[in-house]
Structure formats: structure tokens, C-alpha cells
Amino acid sequence: MKKIEAIVQPFKLEEVKEALKNIGIDGMTISEVRGHGRQKGHKEVYRGQEYNVDLLPKVRFDLVVPDTRLDEVVEALTNAARTGKIGDGKIFVYDVADAVRIRNGDRGDAAV
Amino acid sequence: MYFPNALLLQAATDVTARVTALEAATKSAQSAGDNAWMLTSAALVLMMTGPGLALFYGGLVRRKNVLSTMMHSFIMMALVTVIWALVGYSLVFSEGTPFIGGLKYLFLHGVGADPNADYAGTIPQSTFMIYQMMFAVITPGLISGAYAERIKFSAMALFTTLWVLIVYFPMAHMVWGKGGLLNAYLGGSIPTFDFAGGTVVHITSGVSALVCALYLGKRKGYPTEPIKPHSLVLSVIGACLLWVGWFGFNAGSALSASGLASSAFVATHLAAATAALGWMAAEWLHSGKPSMLGGISGCVAGLVAITPASGFVMPMPALLIGLLAGIFCFWMVTTVKNIFKYDDTLDAFGVHGAGGTLGAILTGVFATNAINSAQINGKVVPLGLVDGNPGQILNQAIGVAIAIGLAAVGTIIILKIVDALIGVRVDAETEEQGLDLTQHGEEGYILEA
């Protein structure tokens, strides 16, 4: 099993969700986060007082998939989230030792 | 022969009686019209403090201080009201010395349905009293912009109580009270023109705000850490309510539903418009974008500057006064504040002190008896520079200087007293936590509730 953590532009939320649904991925966790990579922030001015806002709003997807589905999920995510501009985000993939479905105690691939 | 004469006599008596009745009816109609407008104006001016100023200032602070900042406006509506009823009205409007009124109206004694002909002969004195009360309510509220986010609530309440007694009541008496030093119409020795409170309200509050900002020192983290307004949406609503309420403030200062009220209404609106444009244009050129905050700051600056002039100037000078105020106050809060590095949290000095001073001086330039034909010592006299009376600018400057001096000295003394008794500023940890939780035990936004 792999855990996929994808940080994408907030306005791509629906598109990415739709793309995952189309390849049969239903389970995911979404959070609103802030951060930045190479993308520069922006300047805000309040009565002449300037502030550089460099932590920008992003949406993070967390999902766990069987090893066999990893490539197609990453591909779907990448295609849906890409605009080609700086700030599109990143995808990280981790190994997962085990998973448990709390309702009935299913383990491993059966639980995700 | 006898009979027709009796009839004639009867007819003549009838005419006299009917004329008398007609005169009484006319007077009563005028009184009804004036009173309706003045009660409406009083309510409009109260609306400027709450919710107008409370929203305007509340939106500009950080989320953790929204309630305490709104409280700084709201509490004036309760606290100053009581002080005004007990002693304030008497100290401002009963006859006394040139500097402070007497005790004739203490506890509102004798203030009822009968007009006070010295001030407003067509409305009940109780209307005049409650209208003037609203000015006393908002003025210390304006100062709160300078000490927001770091003053103790108890210190704020004591400061306000002393401030209206030591600064506001004497200044209001000098300018508007019968026999006041600066009263142009009721026997003042240095006649200055202040239609709705440029010196009394805006210079006193603005200068006191600067003194408070300097005395309290900067907020923790200012100006290195980002301290942004938490909701400009609230501020826009507040500023627009101020704009509307200001019609009661300025047009109401005609004290009647007259042509002068209409003229002041027009001047007020025009100045607010050009000031909003002026500030936004200056900002657009200076930092590349015209902002919503700039627009509302500008309109308030224009409303401040036109306040002393509103019942004296023609429409075109009103446009000019607003434009100059918008640009001047923008420069004050963006450039001058940064040079001197004081932390006037919400720019009470930069907008009210600076705008009020500009407006008071320009009143001496543009005041004309073509707009305000009230008689001084029994005759209509030239008013400002445009009427051929350049000396008025000097009188205005003296009025400004007295307001600045009284506000500065009075505020320092009051702050020293309050600091010695209970301490003015909260400690660093309290400031970090925010005043809402530490002073009031509540939060403005409870999203999980």
C-alpha cells in the first residue's frame, strides 16, 4: 500500500476529486493548508503599510491505494491538478505498513 | 346705525383672532418640522458611534481584539450619556465663564419642552440637549482608534470620564456655549467658525489620540510583524454608516429643517465624495492599486474636514476641501506616521486631527454669508477670506491652537492620573492573548459553536 499526499491549488479541488472518482477512487481526506515552494507570495498594502504574504492557501489530498494502482492514481492527480504555472503543487508517495477498517477490523488492501 | 358698527367691530376682532391663530399655527408647524429633523439627526449621530464607528474600527483590528474595540465605541453610548445628563449639558451650554459653563442645567434641571432661544428657538430644549449629547458620545470614541489593542478596559473608562470633563466640555463651551471664548455668535471675544465640530470634536479627539499613542507606546510586534485588519468588510459597512450618519451631524447642526441644513447636507456629501476619490487616486499613484480601505479612509477624512465648514461654504469649495483632505490625510497616515514611527493604531490622529485642522483653517478661507446669513452683533458681516475678511483665517488658527493645546495638555495629565491609579496598558502576555478574552472573557468569532 502507498500513501499519496498531494498539495494542489485550491481552485483545482473539484477537478482533482472528479478525476479520482472517474478512476474509481472514492476514499480520500482533504485539508486546507498553507505553504509555499518556489511560488512567490504577494504584497498587501493597508494604509501604506506593506506586508508580504508568502504562505499561500493550498488544498492537501491524503489517500492510500494498493501498490498496483499507484501509477494510474498519480497520473490522474497530476493531469487534473496541472496548469503549467509555478504554484501547481507537489505529490509525495510513502510506503504504508498496514491499514485497519475500524468498523469490522479488515486489514491491509481490503481496508482501503 | 348701531347694529352695523357692532358687526364691523365683531368682524375686526375676528380677523385679529384669526391672524393670531394663524401665527400660532405657523409657529407650531415650523416647530414640528424642525423638531422632526432634529430628533432624526440626533438618532443619526448616535448611529455613527454604534454601529458606525464600532464596525469601522472593529474591522481594522485583529480578530482577538474585535469585541474590545467595538466596546470602546459602544460603552461611550452608555457612559458619556450619563455624564452628559448629570453635568455635561450644563457645563457646556449654561452661561458661565468664557472657558466653562455654569451649573444652571445640572441634572437637566429646567431642560424640557420649552425652547432655549439662545441656541435653537424652534425646538424643545430637550431635543437640543439630546442632539448635543450625541456629539459628546462619539468624540471620545474617536480617540479609541489610537489606544486600541493595548489599553485596559478599566483605564479606558476612567480616561473617558476625565477626558470629557477636562477637555471636551470646556472646548465645546468655548466654541458653542453662550459667552464662550470662541463663540462667533453669542459673545465670544475671538470669533471662530466651527459649524459642527472641527475643533470641538475632531481636533480634540485627534490630538488626544496622538498623545495616547505616544504615551502607550507601540503595540507588541509593530511594525515588524504583520498586523492586518481582520475584516475590511465590517469596516466598509461601518464607514458607510458613518457617511450616512454624518448628514445628521452636519446638516443637523443647522438646528432646524432649513435651507442652511440642505446646504450643509450638500457640502457634506460632496466633500466625502472628492475625499474618497482623492485618497484612492493618491494611493493608486503611490502604491499601484486603489484599495477599498483607501476609499473608506478617504471618505471619512473628507467628512471630518467639511465638518467645521459645512454650514458656511458653497458647493464648489466643498468639493475642493474634500479633495485636499483626502490627499492630505493619505500623506499623513502613510508618510508622516512612518517618519515619526508612532503607533496610532487606527489613524485617529492622521484622519481626525489632520483632517479637522485642515477643515478648520479652510473654513476661514471659504466661509461666506451667502450661505450662512446669521447675524453677528445684529448685522450680517463678511465671514471668510472669500467675503473679504482674511483676518478670519487667523481667528480659525487661534481656535485650532487652543483646541490642540487643551487636548494635548489635558490628555497627558489624565493619562498620568489614570496610570498612577490603575495603570493604562495591559501587560505583554495579556496583549498577546488579546483584549477580548482577557478584558471581557469572550470571543468575537466562535466558529466551532
CATH class of chain A: Alpha Beta
Write out the CATH superfamily name of chain B.
Answer: Ammonium transporter AmtB like domains
Principal-axes geometry of chain A comes out as elongated
Number of domains of chain A: 1
CATH top level class name of chain B? Mainly Alpha
User: Strand tally of chain B, please?
Assistant: 0
Strand content of chain A: 35-45%
Average pLDDT metric of chain A: 92
Distance between the termini of chain B: 95 Å
In percent, how much strand structure appears in the residues of chain B? under 5%
Uncertain stretches of chain A: none
Percentage of residues assigned to helices of chain A = 10-25%
Please outline the helices and strands.
The complex is a heterodimer of chains A (112) and B (449).
Chain A: E1 2-8, H1 13-22, E2 29-35, E3 42-46, E4 49-53, E5 56-65, H2 70-81, E6 89-95
Antiparallel strand pairs in A: 1-5, 1-6, 2-5, 3-4
Helix pairs in contact in A: 1-2
Chain B: H1 2-60, H2 66-93, H3 125-147, H4 153-176, H5 198-216, H6 232-250, H7 259-287, H8 292-306, H9 315-340, H10 348-366, H11 391-421, H12 428-433, H13 435-440
Key terms:
heterodimer, A: 112 residues, Alpha-Beta Plaits, 2 helices, 37% strand, elongated, B: 449 residues, Ammonium transporter fold, 13 helices
Structure summarized in a few sentences:
Chain A has helices spanning 13-22, 70-81; strands at residues 2-8, 29-35, 42-46, 49-53, 56-65, 89-95. Chain A has 112 residues and is an alpha+beta fold. Chain A is elongated and about 60 Å long.
Characterization of this structure:
- The complex is a heterodimer of chains A (112) and B (449).
- Chain A has helices at residues 13-22, 70-81, and strands at 2-8, 29-35, 42-46, 49-53, 56-65, 89-95.
- Chain A is of the alpha+beta class.
- Chain A has one domain (2-111): 2-Layer Sandwich (Alpha-Beta Plaits).
- A four-stranded antiparallel sheet of chain A has the order 2-5-1-6, with helices on one face. In chain A, strands 3-4 form a two-stranded antiparallel ribbon.
- In chain A, a hairpin with a 2-residue loop joins strand 3 (42-46) and strand 4 (49-53).
- In chain A, helix 1 packs antiparallel against helix 2 (70-81).
- The radius of gyration of chain A is 17 Å and the shape is elongated.
- Chain B is mainly α and 449 residues long.
- Chain B has a single domain, classed as Ammonium transporter fold (Orthogonal Bundle), CATH 1.10.3430.10.
- Chain B is 68% helix and 0% strand.
- Chain B contains 13 helices and no strands.
- In chain B, helix 2 (66-93) crosses helix 3 and helix 6 (232-250) packs parallel to helix 8 (292-306).
- In chain B, 56% of the residues are buried.
- The chains are: A alpha+beta (112), B mainly alpha (449).
- The interface between A and B is medium-sized, with 9 and 19 residues.
